[in-house]
Design goal:
453 residues, alpha/beta, FAD/NAD(P)-binding domain, 3 domains, 26% strand, binds flavin-adenine dinucleotide, binds nicotinamide-adenine-dinucleotide, flavoprotein, Pyr_nuc-diS_OxRdtase, oxidoreductase, EC 1.8.1.16
Length: 453
């Protein structure tokens, strides 16, 4: 087998690998990119972007229904699911069509297939063998296998985003980002939806009080969230429907009959087929072990970033992008020294309405600082009611000594946008007084921030 030599081999085409490959090629280096599925990665094809089409639709339906009792005249708002799927494809199909060509236009050599290490500087893909002193691994993740009998009967988020029609009944396993976002979509589109979460709360990265508000609002709109409910078995009957068994502390076992079961019980790094041992690349359950320069701790030729790198950071696109920026700086540096500047990573679950968070939780802040807590349910305030989606609230944590923001937690219309103001303020150390002294356009959701401080 002939071996092709490159300055860089990038494995994957998600946000992390495409940034690393493109910037390196733009610098005049010989780059190879390998992708085992469609070119474009999770975020653009099966994650953030297509998902947002569905959650925007669900929020629109929710608000339109909110107006029906008031000034919108119609005999019921219904979704045309097939058209929604078509609309989603308007955003994914261009990626499918153009992604590989755009690598090639930059002079990057593209390969299709599953990459695996042959030795610390050699990669095999299909019939090809490629070698380089620099290999970037940005292979992302996949749904963690559901370790219960019948676990394989549950569909994954990829399949949810490609459903041709929407069934009457759904059960979602897990109460994290994926389940709660998709469950809100399904419920607003008319299905009966149950979320089963084994922990004592859903959406654990978000503020407990605001999550309670979200669950209450969802309940009044067809979304049934059950906590302390661990799924133990899934089976399928002769009529094609499914039975989900789960355990709750107060009962032995409960069962639910449903038309579709969706796995939202967590994801794991895509490391299985990479033969990392042959590449001398150390890894664990949480991904490839990297140092603070994003380099493998065991093989100096290998860098990694994004969902498959074990950094302890949330597995989100902005995190993957920041780590990729660092890799680009360090790959060919004589003395690599750039480290990620994560700042405070803002998090948003695109539920109905969205919920957002940046910085410390109330518990973390109170354990380490003297804290002023500004917490309010704003569902009945004018600015929230005007949106026809009466669910809003905030919890802002301010350090009593320095007047700086320690954490901000928001729910409601535009929470997904407003959280970025807090991220900016926190990164640059603005005080609550600085923010309050800034004029914001009115009436906007940003202008509500002054009342939160
Ligand atoms: C349903 C869903 C919704 C999401 N929503 C959001 C959101 O709203 N906001 C947000 O910030 N994040 C979101 N995320 C997370 C976000 O998509 C990821 O954090 C991001 O895509 C990580 O980028 P990456 O480059 O690490 O990997 P990916 O984007 O996962 O790309 C990895 C690529 O590597 C390929 N690959 C895997 N193994 C091999 C191999 N052996 N050889 C060759 N190629 C291989 C894969 O096919 C894939 O194309 C969402 C994720 C999901 C699943
Ligand atoms: N808006 C966003 O930024 C966004 C959206 C989707 C996904 N993501 C990324 O994808 C990752 C994976 O998302 P996810 O929602 O699959 O995982 P997650 O880790 O966020 O949540 C999984 C949940 O499933 C529960 N669970 C596990 N096994 C269970 C069982 N047998 N029965 C009942 N509950 C069970 C866990 O307790 C947990 O609460 C996220 O952590 C995030 O990094 C981000």
């Amino acid at each position: 087998m002939r071996t092709n030599r490159f300055d860089l081999i990038a494995i994957g085409t998600g946000p992390s690998a495409s940034t690393v490959a493109e910037k390196t090629a733009d610098d005049g280096k010989r780059v190879a990119v390998i992708e085992s599925r469609e070119f474009g990665g999770t975020c653009a094809l099966r994650g953030c972007n297509p998902k947002k089409v569905y959650t925007n639709a669900a929020n629109l339906i929710d608000r339109t229904r909110g107006g029906q009792d008031k000034f919108i005249k119609s005999d019921g708002v219904r979704v045309n699911w097939a058209k929604l799927l078509e609309f989603k494809r308007e955003f994914t199909e261009p990626v499918l069509e153009h992604s590989e060509a755009s690598f090639q236009k930059r002079g990057i050599t593209t390969f299709h297939g599953e990459a695996s290490f042959v030795d610390p500087t050699t990669i095999r893909v299909g019939e090809h063998q490629l070698s380089s002193d620099r290999i970037f691994v940005g292979v992302g993740g996949h749904p963690r296998p559901l370790d219960v009998p019948g676990g394989e009967l549950a569909i994954h988020s990829d399949e949810f985003l490609e459903l041709e029609s929407i069934p009457q009944r759904f059960v979602f396993i897990g109460g994290g980002y994926i389940s709660m976002e998709f469950a809100c979509v399904a419920a607003r589109c008319g299905s009966q939806v149950v979320v089963l979460e084994r922990g004592d709360r859903v959406l654990s990265p978000f503020d407990r009080d605001l999550v309670k508000q979200l669950v209450r609002y969802g309940k009044s709109r067809g979304l049934d969230v059950r906590t302390d409910a661990e799924v133990t078995e899934i089976s399928q009957g002769d009529d094609g429907s499914f039975v989900v068994q789960y355990r709750q502390p107060d009962r032995n076992h409960a069962t639910l009959q449903t038309d579709l079961v969706v796995h939202g019980a967590g994801r794991a790094p895509n490391l299985d087929g990479l033969n990392l041992k042959a590449g001398n690349v150390a890894f664990g359950d949480d991904g490839i072990k990297v140092d603070s320069l994003m380099r493998s701790v065991s093989n100096p030729s290998v860098f990694s970033a994004g969902d498959c790198a074990d950094t302890g950071k949330p597995r989100l696109t902005p995190v993957a992008n920041e780590e990729a920026r660092v890799v680009v700086k360090n790959l060919f540096a004589e003395h690599p020294q750039v480290r990620p500047d994560y700042g405070q990573v803002p998090k948003v679950a695109f539920t109905v309405p969205p919920i957002a968070s940046v910085g410390m939780s109330q518990h973390q802040a109170e354990a380490s600082h003297k804290v002023v807590v500004h917490h309010q349910d704003t569902s009945s305030s004018g600015s929230v009611r005007k949106t026809l989606q009466p669910c809003g609230g905030y919890k802002v944590l301010i350090d009593k000594d320095s007047d700086r923001i320690l954490g901000a937690h928001l729910i409601g219309p535009a929470a997904d946008e407003t959280i970025n103001l807090f991220a900016l303020a926190m990164k640059f150390g603005l005080t609550a007084t600085d923010i309050k002294s800034t004029l914001f356009a009115f009436p906007t959701h940003a202008s509500d921030v002054r009342q939160m401080l």
